[in-house]
């Protein structure tokens, strides 16, 4: 069993756990979460890696003394060794911290929680104190971030900005994948630069393939009928 000495001090006491009010967002908020969940899940499965991808799963982050743990519920988290399966929570001491956390901005939480890196009530400080190496925030409607993305990562110097590369992608050192905004979605690319499909795209691809097969079958049937006619059959 993994054991770590993570215990947040009294400076984090005013942090407010996520609740139904903070988790429920607009259709664009939920759509961006689902696209990330599907893209990261497809990436892990495609690479044959034991990733666990959580969708608004509760994190248990212990505090000093006998205080109850902090319990944020990030929109997306990725743990690289837990493997897929049902979980109701993730304990950063017993399970180890996730490699990446992503929050999709909504007006209720954007400024005071998701983006607030200056004080302990903000999620950037909480996630860093919990030992999470990478934290990315996505703004699907560009209401708070004109570039739609802001991110941080842990380094030997502490928490530092996580900046995009020359392609405009945020490359995750922890996962070996990259992220780039595509309208109201944040898309996932694997290490070979392949865009990871989401469910709607997969359904469209299957439907297009089935239409192509049906068109081919009709063409073959028409050619066979013409051949029989020419033979006088």
Would you give an account of this structure?
With 233 residues, this protein is an alpha+beta fold. The chain has two domains: 187 residues, tt1808, chain A; 36 residues. It contains five helices and eleven strands. The strands form three sheets. It has a six-stranded mixed sheet, sandwiched between helices. It has a three-stranded antiparallel sheet with strand order 9-10-11. Strand 9 and strand 10 form a beta hairpin. The longest helix has 32 residues. The radius of gyration is 23 Å and the shape is elongated.
In this structure, how is the largest beta sheet organized? 6 strands, mixed
In terms of quaternary structure, what is this? Answer: single chain
Number of helices: 5
Q: Which structural class best describes the helix and strand composition? A: alpha+beta
Pfam families: Uma2
Organism: uncultured Thermomicrobiales bacterium
InterPro entries: Nuclease_put_TT1808, Restrct_endonuc-II-like, Uma2
Protein name: Putative restriction endonuclease domain-containing protein
Keywords:
3-stranded antiparallel β-sheet, 11 strands, alpha+beta, 6-stranded mixed β-sheet, tt1808, chain A, about 230 residues, 5 helices
